[in-house]
Design goal:
Chain lengths: 476, 451
C-alpha cells in the first residue's frame, strides 16, 4: 500500500495522522463507555437521560469525522461519509419522537457500532459500505414503526402457534427450495455461501432467513413461557426449538444453532428458574454435539481447525491463523487505520471484522468493544428485570441475548476462544439481513423501555444497576 | 423471574470476562510467539524510512542502509545467515523484516521527521554472531561445498553459521539468473537446509540408544577383523582396517563399523528411533530464526538386518542437517541438555532503547547426564588417539566425532561434530573423499574460540 519513501511527503503526514489517531480513538471509546456507565448508575452531571445521550452522540460524531478523514480517498467516499454523519444525527435526535421513551444508551451503542462498521467497510471495500448504510437506514426506518405495530396487534402474545409455524417455515424454506429447485424452474434459488446453505434468493434479492427467524423465535418463546409453562407445553416448546436448532445444524449454520440454543436456554431459565432443566438442556446439547460430531464431517473440520490451526495452516487453519496474525502483530494500539493488512483474512468484512478492528485500532480498543457489548447486556437485562409483565421481561431477555451472545460467538471465534463458525458481529459486520434484524431488535428494546414507563413499574432510576443480584419481590 | 434473569446475567458476564481475558492474552502475550510466522503477510510489509542495522556480537556492522541501498560490509562472509533485502529477501533480513522495519516510539519519530524533514529508522538487531569466527569458516570452506554451525553449547547462541558456495548479497539482484541456474545452489543455506547422510557421526546415537537400553553394554567388547558378514553381505571398516579387540571408547575413537553393527543387533530398532528423534531432533521441526529443514530418519520398527546395520552406522535412510548435528554435539557438551538455537540477542530502537532481549531457552533434556559424559569421553578419545586427531589443540581438550558419508555422487562427504570449552560445532564438507579438511577446520575454529 505504501511506497518505501525516504522523504516526508503528504502521504507521510496522512500516516502520521493514522498513527496519532489510535490514541484519540481509544480515548473517545473510553469517554463513550464512562458516560454509559454513568447513565447506568443514573443521574449526575454525566449520567442524566439527556446529558448522556448528547455526550455520546458528540463522541460518535467526533469519532466518525476523524476516522473518515483517514479512510476516505475519493469523492464517493466523501459523499458516503456525509450520509453516515446525517444518519447518525438523524438516529440520535429524530428517532426519539417515535418512541414513548427511547433508551439513549442502547440506541447510542447501536449507532456507534453501526458507524464503526461503516468506517471499516469503507476502508475494506467501499462498494459494500453504501449498501450496508442503505439497509441499516431502512431497518431503522422500519423500527420506528414498531410502536405502531404493537399498538395494532395488541394481543400479539396469543399468536404463539403462528410464530413457530413461521420459524420452521422460514428456516425450512431453504432446504425445501433447494429440493424443489431440482424439479421446477422458479426464480427461487438457494445458495451455498461460506460453507453454509442458509441463503435464499427471491427475484434477485438474497437474504438469510435464519436472521428473520430470530425475532419471531423470541416472540414464540416469550409467549410460550410468559406463564410458568406446564409440562405438555414445555415439551412442545422444547421439541420445536430443538427442531429449529437441528435444521440450522443440517444447514451447516453451527454458530446460528449455538445462538438459538442459548437464547432458548436463557429464556427457559428466566421463566422457570429450574436448575434441573438448565442442566438437562446442556446435557442434551453435549450429547447432541458428540453425535453431530460423529455424523457431520463439516463439524469435524471446524473442530480440527480450532484445536490445531497451525497444523493445516494453508487450508483449514488459514482463516483463523490469519485472524490471529491480525490481532497479535501490532500491539496495544494497533497499526493505525488503513496501515494494517486485514484484507488478508478471508471473508473479513463479514465474519472476521473484530480482528480487522483489533488490528488497526489495537487490542485495547478491541477489549473496550467487548465491554461495549457488555454494557448492552447490562442495560438490556436491566430492562428485562424492570419490565412490568413477564412477557415483556422475556422479550427483552431474548432480544438482548440474541445480540450479545451472537457477539460472543463471533468474537470468540475470531480470537480462537471457541471454534470459528462464521456468524456476523451484530451492527458491525457486513451483512444485510443481519444488520436489518439487529436494528429491529433494538427498536423492540426501545419500545419495551417505554412500556415499563407506561405500566408505572419503573422505580427510581438510580436503583437500576444496584438491582442486579438482589432478591426481588415480583416473581414472574 | 427477576432473580432468574439476574443469575443469567452473571453467567453471561463471566463468559464475557473470560473471553476478554483470553483476548488480551492472545493479542498481547501469545501474539509475540506467532507474529513472525512466515504465513503472516505483515512481516513482509514494506517499511518507511531506513531499515534497521544488523550488528555482530561485538558491534561490527553486518548490514545497514545508505543512500545507495542496503550495504553488507562483510560481503559474502555472512551471505546466508544475514541474507539480503531487495526485491526479495532471505536470512535474517527476511525473518526479522518486521522488526527491522518497525519504528520504535513511532509517534515521536514520525513527528520529528515531519518537523525536521528527517528520516525515520526501523529497529536494529544485535546478533550473537562473531565476524572473526565467521571469517575463519568462510575462508576454510573456500572453494568447497559445505557448511558449518558453531554455537554456545549452554545458551544456544549461534556464534557462526556459514554455507559454501556463497554469493555477494549486494549483487544478488544483478546475479539472480546466474545464481538460480548454478548447479552448486549457492543461494541454499546448507547449514540449516542441507540434508546429508550423517555417516559415522550417527554412531553417537546408536551408542546412546544402547546405553539407555542397558548400561552394561558399555562393557561390550568386539574383535574387529576389518570386515563382518551377515545375511550374506559384507560390511567393511573404513579402508578395510582390522581394529583388533575394541571396547566402547576405542570403537568410537576408531569409528569401528563392525562394533556398532553388532551393538545395534543387541537392542531393538525402536530404541534407535527414539534416541534419534529425541537427541538429534530427527523428524522434528527445529525452532530457529531461519528456515530449517527437518532432519529425516526412517526405519521400520522391525527392520531387515541389513537396514538396521546400515542405519546404525549412519548410512540408512537418514538425512541430517549441520544444525541438528551441532545441537546434538551441544547437548553432549552440556550434560545432556539441548539449548534452543538463536541469533537475535537484542532489538534496539532508534533512541538506543531496548525493544526486546532474547532470553535463552532449552529444547530440553535429551539424554541422561551420565550417558552424555560417557559419550563425551569417547569423543575425547577420538581426538586424542582416534580419527579426529587433526582437531587436537594444545591448550584445551577437544572432543569430536568424524564421519564419512557415502552418497549418491560416489565421492564421500566428511563430517566433524564436536566441542571444546563452551562451544559446540558441526561441519560438513562435501565430496572430500574422506579427507581431514573438516576436522582441521574444526580445530582452527575451536583454537580461535578458546585461546
Amino acid at each position: 500500500m505504501h511506497e518505501n519513501t525516504r522523504n516526508a511527503g503528504g502521504d507521510f503526514i496522512l500516516d502520521l495522522l493514522a498513527v496519532l489517531s489510535r490514541y484519540y480513538f481509544v480515548f473517545l471509546l473510553i469517554c463513550f463507555i464512562i458516560v454509559g456507565v454513568a447513565y447506568l448508575r443514573g443521574g449526575g452531571r454525566l449520567g442524566g437521560e439527556r446529558a448522556a445521550g448528547r455526550t455520546q452522540t458528540a463522541v460518535i460524531l467526533l469519532f466518525a469525522i476523524f476516522a473518515f478523514a483517514i479512510v476516505v480517498d475519493s469523492v464517493e467516499g466523501l459523499i458516503f461519509a456525509g450520509f453516515v454523519l446525517a444518519f447518525a444525527i438523524f438516529a440520535s435526535f429524530v428517532a426519539r419522537r417515535f418512541y414513548r421513551r427511547l433508551c439513549p444508551l442502547i440506541t447510542n451503542i447501536m449507532i456507534f457500532m453501526l458507524v464503526l462498521g461503516f468506517i471499516m467497510l469503507q476502508r475494506l471495500d467501499p462498494g459494500l459500505a453504501m449498501r450496508q448504510l442503505i439497509i441499516a437506514a431502512a431497518g431503522f426506518g422500519v423500527s420506528m414503526l414498531i410502536p405502531l405495530i404493537f399498538k395494532i396487534f395488541k394481543n400479539f402474545e396469543k399468536l404463539e402457534k403462528l410464530y413457530i409455524v413461521l420459524c420452521v417455515g422460514l428456516l425450512g424454506i431453504v432446504s425445501a427450495a433447494s429440493l424443489l429447485g431440482n424439479f421446477i424452474d422458479i426464480p427461487l434459488v438457494t445458495e451455498d455461501r461460506f460453507g453454509a446453505t442458509n441463503w435464499i434468493s427471491v427475484f434477485g434479492i438474497t437474504f438469510q432467513p435464519s436472521e428473520f427467524v430470530k425475532p419471531i423465535f423470541v416472540l414464540f418463546l416469550a409467549a410460550a413461557f410468559r406463564d410458568k409453562p406446564r409440562m405438555s407445553k414445555l415439551i412442545f416448546t422444547s421439541a420445536a426449538s430443538a427442531a429449529l436448532v437441528l435444521i440450522l445444524v443440517v444447514q451447516r449454520d453451527l454458530g446460528g444453532a449455538l445462538i438459538f440454543f442459548t437464547v432458548f436456554m436463557v429464556m427457559l431459565y428466566a421463566s422457570t428458574g429450574s436448575k434441573l432443566l438448565f442442566g438437562a438442556g446442556f446435557g442434551a446439547m453435549a450429547i447432541a454435539s458428540v453425535i453431530s460430531y460423529q455424523i457431520f464431517p463439516h463439524i469435524r473440520v471446524r473442530v480440527a481447525a480450532f484445536l490445531d490451526p497451525w497444523g493445516d495452516i494453508a487450508v483449514s487453519g488459514f482463516q483463523i491463523t490469519q485472524s490471529l496474525f491480525a490481532i497479535g502483530t501490532w500491539g496495544a494500539f494497533g497499526s493505525g487505520l488503513t496501515r494494517g493488512l486485514p484484507e488478508r483474512i478471508p471473508v473479513v468484512e463479514r465474519d472476521v471484522i473484530f480482528s480487522a478492528i483489533s488490528e488497526e485500532f489495537g487490542w485495547i480498543f478491541g477489549l473496550l468493544l467487548i465491554a461495549l457489548y457488555g454494557l448492552l447486556l447490562i442495560r438490556g437485562l436491566q430492562l428485562a428485570r424492570r419490565a412490568g409483565r413477564p412477557l415483556h421481561a422475556l422479550m427483552a431477555t431474548g432480544f438482548t441475548i440474541f445480540l450479545v451472545f451472537q457477539a460472543f460467538v463471533s468474537i470468540g471465534g475470531n480470537i480462537r476462544f471457541i471454534p470459528m463458525t462464521g456468524v456476523t458481529l451484530p451492527f458491525i459486520s457486513y451483512g444485510g439481513s443481519s444488520v436489518f434484524v439487529s436494528v429491529l431488535m433494538v427498536g423492540v428494546l426501545n419500545w419495551l423501555n417505554g412500556q415499563d414507563w407506561q405500566d408505572g413499574q419503573i422505580g427510581d432510576e438510580k436503583e437500576m444497576l444496584a438491582n442486579f443480584g438482589e432478591d426481588d419481590i415480583i416473581e414472574g | 423471574m427477576r432473580r432468574n434473569i439476574g443469575q443469567m446475567f452473571w453467567v453471561l458476564a463471566v463468559i464475557f470476562m473470560a473471553m476478554g481475558a483470553y483476548f488480551v492474552w492472545t493479542a498481547a502475550v501469545d501474539g509475540r510467539n506467532f507474529a513472525a510466522h512466515p504465513f503472516n503477510g505483515r512481516v513482509n510489509i514494506e517499511g518507511r524510512g531506513l531499515r534497521g542495522t544488523i550488528y555482530d556480537a561485538r558491534g561490527r556492522v553486518l548490514a545497514y542502509d545508505s543512500e545507495f541501498g542496503r550495504n553488507y560490509p562483510f560481503g559474502a562472509v555472512f551471505a546466508h545467515v544475514v541474507g539480503y533485502s531487495g526485491m526479495s529477501r532471505a536470512g535474517l533480513e527476511l525473518s526479522q523484516n518486521f522488526t527491522l522495519t518497525r519504528l520504535s516510539r513511532e509517534l515521536i519519530q514520525m513527528t520529528a521527521a515531519v518537523i525536521f524533514n528527517d528520516e525515520v529508522a526501523g529497529n536494529s538487531i544485535e546478533t550473537t554472531l562473531d565476524a572473526d569466527i565467521q571469517s575463519i569458516i568462510h575462508n576454510g570452506l573456500d572453494g568447497a561445498r559445505g557448511a558449518a554451525v558453531v554455537l554456545n553449547a549452554q545458551t544456544g547462541a549461534i556464534v557462526a553459521m556459514a554455507s559454501a558456495p556463497g554469493f555477494e548479497p549486494e549483487l544478488v539482484e544483478q546475479d539472480w539468473g546466474r545464481l538460480l541456474g548454478d548447479g552448486a545452489s549457492p543461494l541454499l543455506n546448507r547449514a540449516t537446509q542441507g540434508l546429508y547422510p550423517p555417516g559415522s557421526t550417527f554412531k553417537l546415537i546408536t551408542a546412546l540408544a544402547a546405553l539407555e537400553y542397558d548400561m552394561e553394554l558399555l562393557d561390550f567388547v568386539f574383535d574387529c577383523t576389518g570386515q563382518i558378514s551377515f545375511e550374506g553381505q559384507t560390511l567393511q571398516c573404513f579402508g578395510g582396517t582390522a581394529h583388533g579387540e575394541v571396547d566402547f571408547n576405542r570403537a568410537m575413537a576408531l569409528s569401528c563399523n563392525g562394533y556398532f553393527a553388532v551393538l545395534a543387533q543387541k537392542i531393538d530398532a525402536g530404541h534407535i528411533i527414539a534416541a534419534a528423534e529425541r537427541a538429534a531432533l530427527f523428524n522434528r521441526e527445529i525452532p530457529f530464526e531461519l528456515a530449517a529443514s527437518m532432519p529425516l530418519f526412517s526405519m521400520p520398527n522391525e527392520p531387515e538386518l541389513s537396514e538396521l546395520v546400515e542405519t546404525a552406522i549412519g548410512q540408512g535412510r537418514t538425512l541430517a542437517t549441520p544444525l541438528n548435528m551441532a545441537l546434538l554435539a551441544a547437548a553432549i557438551a552440556n550434560d545432556g541438555i539441548m539449548p534452543e538455537p538463536f541469533m537475535v540477542e537484542r532489538v534496539v530502537g532508534a533512541f538506543d532503547n531496548t525493544v526486546g532481549r532474547h532470553s535463552p531457552r532449552r529444547i530440553g533434556r535429551v539424554m541422561p547426564a551420565e550417558i552424555a559424559e560417557i559419550l563425551a569421553d569417547s569423543m575425547v578419545d577420538a581426538v586424542n588417539f582416534g580419527t579426529a586427531a587433526p582437531a587436537t589443540l594444545n591448550h584445551v581438550q577437544v572432543a569430536g566425532k568424524t564421519g564419512t558419508a557415502q552418497n549418491e555422487t560416489g565421492i564421500d562427504h566428511s563430517w566433524f561434530i564436536g566441542f571444546a570449552g563452551d562451544y559446540a560445532l558441526a561441519i560438513i564438507i562435501e565430496n572430500t573423499g574422506g579427507g581431514t579438511r573438516a576436522t582441521r577446520l574444526a580445530g582452527e575454529i575451536l583454537l580461535r574460540l578458546t585461546e
